[in-house]
Design brief:
seven-stranded mixed β-sheet; alpha/beta; globular; four-stranded mixed β-sheet; 19% strand; single chain
């Protein structure tokens, strides 16, 4: 059997895979098992933030894996402590919990919000408002939090006490509010929901409501966080800090990690015995994440991300097939006039470019460290496909 046959024979068919066997890569360039070369504008759905096999990141991971690859969280280890300190310093948050994915980080945020409210107000204040077209994960609780009907099927019963407000609709948000609400959970840019950014006034109103009513503002920055939008956290674009922010994907540089960050107000809500993770904060993953943050914290790096994102957005806007370019920074959605996003994905794949889709849009999440040459080569392919 070849790799595709082996996979299809023995792995549950839960993904719509392209018939490509990826083998090795450097930067934003990756090769399949047959030697074909691709420019990657998807970076593992925003996860390979430093591209493939960044030398400094790989060295940090390999050095750690030869020292100690795992220890339970009943003990301490240096990479976890260093990562936590670095994240607090860079984000302004007080404390965090480590898991292994965005869904786990969001589960933690949901539990934290409900316990914060229970500790202060008792039972009956557990409702969490999320947004229509949001996506927060594939566990039962995070599927329940996701504001898309297509995900609310098969796995009944779903977790209760979630409500869905329309994005950028302040009146609808207020209609969903009552005395049972303990949190409002948002993505500053809805990734799976079509790469749509929230409006400033809507975010400001959420922050005002949360302050006034002592409910927690939760920002799901699993996809928007860690430099993706040209800022470390997308909330910086809005001048807002949520009480709780979740990160995953890009912070690990390609290894599994989820982080739930909490401000001083709710940093000590989860105590011994209320939450845990076997692999959360693993030494190898943390060593890699420290290197990701060190690279992003280097002077000029964030500015370079923003500059390159601005360049590709301007290039795409010139295409006759492009109706609109949405999102923030290197989180890019492309609304098409006549073509179908899946057809564009397939044509790009044939021409040596990996892209993504979201709803009816083409979605781009290039590695943050992509070179200008790689960016130009990939953009050339994409424009040729769009204008064909």
């Amino acid at each position: 059997m070849n790799t595709i046959e082996q996979t299809n024979a023995h792995i549950m068919q839960t993904y719509g895979r392209s018939d490509v066997v990826l083998d090795n890569g450097t930067g934003a360039t990756i090769h399949d098992a047959g030697g074909k070369t691709f420019i990657d504008f998807g970076s593992g759905i925003g996860t390979a933030s430093l591209g493939y096999c960044n030398q400094a990141w790989a060295d940090a991971v390999c050095e750690q894996v030869r020292k100690i690859q795992h220890t339970s969280n009943l003990f301490y280890h240096e990479p976890q402590a260093k990562l936590a300190e670095k994240l607090c310093a860079m984000t302004g948050y007080e404390k965090m919990f480590f898991g292994n994915s965005g869904a786990e980080a969001n589960e933690c945020a949901i539990k934290l919000a409900r316990k914060y409210s229970f500790d202060k107000y008792g039972k009956g204040r557990a409702t969490i408002i999320t947004l229509v077209n949001s996506f927060h994960g594939r566990t039962i609780a995070t599927l329940s939090a996701t504001g898309q009907d297509v995900f609310h099927n098969y796995f009944f019963p779903f977790v209760g006490d979630f409500r869905y407000a329309k994005a950028n609709d302040i009146a609808d948000l207020h209609e969903k509010l009552d005395d049972t609400v303990c949190a409002i959970m948002i993505e500053y840019v809805q990734g799976e929901g079509g790469v749509m950014a929230l409006e400033q006034g809507f975010v400001d109103e959420i922050r005002r409501i949360c302050d006034e009513k002592d409910i927690l503002m939760i920002a799901d920055e699993v996809q928007t966080g860690i430099g993706r939008t040209g800022k470390l956290l997308a909330g910086e674009h809005y001048g807002v800090q949520a009480d709780v922010t979740t990160c995953a994907k890009g912070i690990g540089g390609g290894l599994p990690i989820g982080v739930c960050l909490a401000n001083k107000k709710c940093a000590d809500v989860l105590v011994k015995g209320t939450h845990g993770s076997t692999f959360g904060g693993n030494p190898v993953v943390c060593a890699g994440a420290v290197k990701v943050l060190e690279i992003l914290d280097t002077p000029g790096v964030m500015e370079d991300i923003a500059k390159k994102a601005e360049w590709i957005r301007a290039e795409l806007a010139k295409c006759s097939e492009v109706e609109a370019v949405t999102g923030l920074g290197f989180m890019i959605g492309i609304t098409l006039k006549t073509k179908k996003a899946p057809d564009v994905l397939k044509a790009c794949l044939d021409q040596g470019l990996l892209v993504l889709t979201a709803k009816d849009r083409v979605r781009l999440l290039p590695p943050l460290t992509i070179t200008q040459a790689e960016l130009e080569e990939g953009t050339k392919i994409l424009k040729e496909v769009l204008e064909a």
